[in-house]
Design goal:
Elements lengths: L26 H8 L11 H5 L10 H13 L3 H9 L11 H4 L8 H11 L1 H33 L6 H12 L2 E5 L2 E4 H33 L3 H5 L3 H43 L1 H48 L1 H6 L3 H53 L5 H43 L20 E8 L10 E8 L4 E5 L6 H9 L6 E6 L2 E2 L5 H7 E4 L10 H5 L10 H10 L3 H4 L22 H13 L5 E5 L7 H17 L3 E5 L3 H6 L2 E6 L2 E6 L1 H7 L2 H17 L1
This protein binds adenosine-5'-triphosphate.
GO molecular function: ABC-type oligopeptide transporter activity; ATP binding; ATP hydrolysis activity
Pfam family, one: ABC_membrane
Keywords: ATP-binding, Membrane, Nucleotide-binding, Transmembrane, Transmembrane helix, Transport
Amino acid sequence: MGLDNQNSNQIYPIQQHEQSQDFNINQSLRETTKSNITPNDSQKPNGKFGQSWENSNDNTGIFKEEHKQNEKDNLITPYKKQAQNDQPHNDQPPVSKKDVDQPAKPVNPTKKLMKYMKNERWLFFWSTIALVLGNAGQFAVPYYIGLFVDNMKDEKFDDIPSLCYQLVGIIFVIIQQSHNKYIQFSSIAVFYRGMYYSVISEKIARNLRQDLYESLVNKDVEFFDSRKTGDLLSRIGSDTAVIQEGLSTNVSMFLRSFIFIIVSFIFLFILSWQLTLAMIASIMPVILFSVFYGNMMKNAQKHIQDGKAYISTLAEETFSNIRTVKAFATEKEETLRYSKGNDTVYKYGYYKSFWYGIFNFFANFFVFGSMAVIVGLGSKLYQDGEITIGEITAFLFYMMQILMNFMILASVLGSVMSIIGASVKIVEILEYIPKINTSGGNKIEGQIIGEVTIRDVKFHYPTKKDVQVLKGVTIDIKKNRVVALVGPSGCGKSSLISMIERFYDPIEGVVEFDGVDVKTLDPKWYHSQVAIVQQEPVLFSGSIKENIGYGLPEDQVTEETLDWACKQANAYEFIHDKDLFPEGYSTIVGERGVKLSGGQKQRIAIARALIRKPKILLLDEATSALDAESEHQVQKALDELIKSGEQTIIVIAHRLSTIRDADEIIVIRKGEVAERGSHEELLKKGGVYKSLVERQLMSMQLEEK
Ligand SMILES: Nc1ncnc2c1ncn2[C@@H]1O[C@H](COP(=O)(O)OP(=O)(O)OP(=O)(O)O)[C@@H](O)[C@H]1O
């Protein structure tokens, strides 16, 4: 069979073996695997099988013990064991966080949260005023009780009614505005206090969610390589919800109790400094214990949030791969996997509740024990004539007030620490500085030529530093040329495309666009010049029109431009088939384009790339995930584009016809350029390319037999 006549033949590789250097994987294997077990890069099952969420930095001994216990209990470790068992499924090795995280400097989550709170300082100020006003009267109650007792003891009964009026006036903060006109401040203040604190929590949660989302979409590909979607969704959803709930009720309660305690202490000192010091000494163990307790609550909450993120990842992966779950009937296994994560979350919740109980017991013991101390010492001071019975009574009431608020403070402290625990990961994400920015940089002025130069590029993936994927690749691609990248699976073709697309930056060497280092270019502008069609087309859930015009200004997405791009992409006819798509461009494609066939999705993805009229078009095995008929449709579009010579095209292809039509073929082997030239030149040369083609043809002949 003459090589030159293999127009429609495909270079289907013999299946990849370690020693084999064939082009790609066998097409029939592709057909079976593409929908089931061989997801593309973005779907590689790195999460479920690879990592446990248990990677916290907690520094309390108790928690370390807890981990050990968990390991014994097999509550967390099943994931680790699973990870080991499932290692062959996992294309990405476990990643050291150190390798991938690079925050500028560690930021204290409390500090970061404080920043958000500081932005609402005026609301805080007014709500605290409202809080004080709403509760002001209660501060004076014990003092008045003391006065009542002393007046009764001294039989000054005539003074009691006026004391009563004063007390009512103070409690309700009733102010006489004019004759017969009174304003009752406390109720108004209570209303504002309730409202303001709730508004503060809503605002902080909104700002946090917004900042988190904005920060996430601006991260580089490297960041997402080492994180799972479900985890990130949980950070935006669950973590911010904990913060919001915590802020709305607990901060106001915390402040209220705190103010009560401070004001009551002032009264205590006024009444008797000796008794006050005795009281502080007797409740000191509770104060010290509360620091430890607060830390524990913070760490437990961090674990809970991590656990929630983990189960959210599981759920996200399972539901987005529901067809695979059905096909392999793994519903039970998935439910079990979820329940293990869920149980671990419960375990930490239980742990929190247990320590809350211990704290209550501890506080109760010391707090009420201190009352006995005060009664004993108080009677001694009374005997010495240093204090009246009324003052002792007032002191005991203030003390009760303090102790009650202490208990409230303790329970709230747990929640406040939970807020801090929940914010740890959020802060980590906010502080991560992407290596590749999404804004800034230059635009090339004047006529754009559309040339790419790759100069001595060396590269390894940040999550796989020990494997050098590109080992000093140098290629120059001239204007409107079509260059085909070929080579065995895993040799680095897609990685090279990723360099040009600037998903990653080279470790060494440069990628230039029209002679300018792409690192210096404005990414938004650069991506308007370079478009990519990937192996697995990814669409958004909007209409066909929205998908094709994705990211373009509305005036560039007209009927005319849409028609043009769709005709070029061989998508015009099916979109305008009234039986299939009565709503034409307005057809909603469903989540990830689920309502379209693979070939239709891919042709829309091609139209999406073309409508931008990019100077450079990158085609990363754009037909490899398709069945034969869809592939034919998409290939027709690509062949036309390649022949038109209107763009610089860099194509990773496995069809001989596509490769043969290219102006230049670059054979990549083990991360290096092995050969380059036209189809004829390379065949004449009789090197790697020729043997690849021959081997391929042989395998096809065998298949035909
Ligand atoms: N995101 C990633 N993180 C870590 N390693 C990766 C990543 N993507 C690819 N690799 C690794 O880099 C190497 C080159 O992969 P690349 O996708 O560039 O090969 P390829 O030639 O395009 O293969 P194929 O033809 O099978 O698509 C492979 O060993 C692969 O496992």
